Amino acid sequence: MAQVLIIAYGNPLRSDDGVAWRAADLLERKFPESEVEILRLHQLAPELADAARNRDLILFLDAACPDTAENTQPGQIRVKEISQRSRDEDQASQCSHVYSPARILNFAHKLYHEVPKAFVLTIAGETFDHGDLLSDPVEAATPDLVAKVEQIVQEYLSNKRRPS
User: Which of 65, 108, 124, 151 has the smallest count of CB within 10 Å of its CB?
Assistant: First the structure.
C-alpha cells in the first residue's frame, strides 16, 4: 500500500470546483503508484478513515470560495497543515453532515489509532457555475498547486529514503 494518499475532491462539472480533479490528473504520472495513491471524490465521507489507515502522509486538495479569510483572490493557493488542535476543534461539532479533512483524520485515529501527517491545499475559485472549464485565474494557478503538492510529496519521499 502506498504511504502517501492524495485526495482530490470537488465537482468537475462545476467549473472551478473541479480544480482538484484537474490537479490529480496532472499528478497521476509524477509518482510511482507503489508510493502515492490518488483518489478523486465528489465529497469527503466517513469511509475515508479506512483509506487513511496505514498512511504516513495525506494531502487533501480542494477549491475554496474566494470570500473566506484564507483565500481572498481567485487563484490564490493556501497550504495548511492539519494540526492536532484543528482535529480537536473539528471533533467538537459532532452533529454535522459535512465531513472535513480533520474529521476524517479523527475517525482514522479513533478507529485505527492512526495519526498521519496531513495537509489541506486549497485554491480560491472564481466561478462555480455549471461547466467543465476552469476560470482564467484558477487555470493559471493550477501548475503552482501541482508544484506545491509535488514539493510536499518529494520532501516526504526523500526523507523516507534517507538511512536513519
Answer: 151
Q: CA-to-CA distance for 117 and 52, rounded, in angstroms?
A: 10
Contacts of 163 (CB under 8 A, 6+ apart): none
**Which stretch of DSSP H or E encloses residue 27?**
helix 19-27
Please give the radius of gyration of the chain, using alpha carbons only, rounded to the nearest integer.
15
Reading the block at residue 96, the C-alpha cell is: 454535522
* pTM recorded for the entire structure: 0.90
Domains of the chain: 4-161 (3.40.50.1450)
Closest CA to 51 of 98, 94, 8, 96: 8
Asked if 138 and 19 count as a contact pair (C-beta separation under 8 A), the reply is yes
Give, to the nearest 10 degrees, the angle between helix 19-27 and helix 136-161. Answer: 40
pLDDT in tens, 43-75: 999 999 999 999 999 999 999 987 655 557 999
Q: At residue 85, what is the residue type?
A: R
Between CA 82 and CA 88, with CA 85 as vertex, the angle to 5 degrees is 100
Return all residues near 28 (Cβ < 8 A) that are at least 6 apart. Answer: 38
